[in-house]
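Appendix B. Raw example, untouched.
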Amino acid sequence: MIDHLVYAGPDLEAAAKSAESIIGVRSVEGGRHVGFGTANRLIGLGPSTYLEIIGPDPSQPAPAFERPFGIDALEAPRLVAWAVAVDDIEAARKLVEFAGIGPPVEMTRRTPTGDLLRWRLTPPVPGSMPFLIDWLDTPHPAGQLEQVAKLVDLRIEDTDPGEVRKVVRALNVNVSTRKAWEPRIAATIDLPDRRVVLW
């Protein structure tokens, strides 16, 4: 199932305002990714799904390597990645290894209340392929978020949607795919009074 969407930008606060203006829901502070030079804010999209808004963390020194999700090259905020929740990340990765999805790494971050979150994920690959995430013994972050918005459709556009289709079939994930000039992600989100699309 879809775990979360990644909305990244060159400035975290500007990215948060952009997402909030489209969705109409305030984001909440997530935490800092120490050593990666990033921090995030979150918006709930369902009981087990959320939007991660990520950007540079001005309180950290710039890392010696590029920040994840191509953040350093972005000129404006946009959807850049999506994650699929799995219970056994090693077994799931073997199903999609053909798509260049690499071995998982473990990460942590502290919430604003001091709780330690721990998870394993496969490094995101460029384009529109998902990455995999296993929250281990950590309660899912969406459980702490206001449930006003709901993700109802995710469309993955790619120059070669056939490869994406193979991956989503292997993982049994319900998304739509379409051929396009460049990889793009479109999320259709329902609110109590309207429907919006976040790119």
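End of appendix B.
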